[in-house]
Amino acid sequence: MEREVIQSVGFRNTVENGEVTGFQFKIRLPYYRGIFLSQIRPGTLFVDGETFTKDQITWCFAGEEYTVDEMAVDFKTHWNPNVTAVLKVKKPGGLAQGYHDLKYGFCFTSSYMPPALQAMLDPDKESFVFMPEFGHHVNERRLLIV
């Protein structure tokens, strides 16, 4: 697993029934304890300036796929910090071969962080308090599809 939150391994177009339906990339959890899916606050994905909303992204853990709405009520599935999540993005035709600039942020709730502080966190913007260990960081990476 790489140090960066957005991993370089696993970045590729997705194919269903012989048709390219989108692309996927992997992220790691920058928190040592792990979290439950209901704690995740997904952000907006930007690829080469194009915006992908939460509704266009499916999160995958151990082969199981979850929408943002399903994750919000899942109090049983745990994201272990030594396992990457695969984010599948709907985009007919996928991405062209070559380099792409990804920008993605997410954050998560924590029982020992003050609620007032957590309420001000926006997964799409850098926090006034830099806390990447709690996922409160917008991550950027240039990746290659071949």
Written description of the protein model:
The longest helix has 5 residues, at 68-72. This protein has 146 residues and is mostly beta strands. It has one domain (6-145): Sandwich (Immunoglobulin-like), CATH 2.60.40. Helices cover 7% and strands 47% of the residues. The protein has helices at residues 68-72, 115-119; strands at 6-16, 19-27, 35-36, 40-47, 50-52, 57-61, 64-66, 78-79, 85-90, 98-108, 137-145. It has two helices and eleven strands. The strands form three sheets. Strands 1-2-9-6-7 form a five-stranded antiparallel beta sheet. A four-stranded antiparallel beta sheet has the order 5-4-10-11. Strands 3-8 form a two-stranded antiparallel sheet. The mean pLDDT is 89. The two termini are 21 Å apart.
Distance between the termini: 21 Å
By helix and strand content, what is the structural category? mainly beta
Q: Summarize the amount of helix as a percent range.
A: under 10%
Average predicted confidence as pLDDT: 89
In N-to-C order, the SSE pattern is EEEEEEEHEEEHE
The CATH architecture designation is: Sandwich
Quick rundown:
With 146 residues, the chain is mostly beta strands. It contains 2 helices and 11 strands. The chain has a 5-stranded antiparallel beta sheet.
Walk me through the topology.
Elements (H helix, E strand, L loop, with lengths): L5 E11 L2 E9 L7 E2 L3 E8 L2 E3 L4 E5 L2 E3 L1 H5 L5 E2 L5 E6 L7 E11 L6 H5 L17 E9 L1
Antiparallel strand pairs: 1-2, 2-9, 3-8, 4-5, 4-10, 6-7, 6-9, 10-11
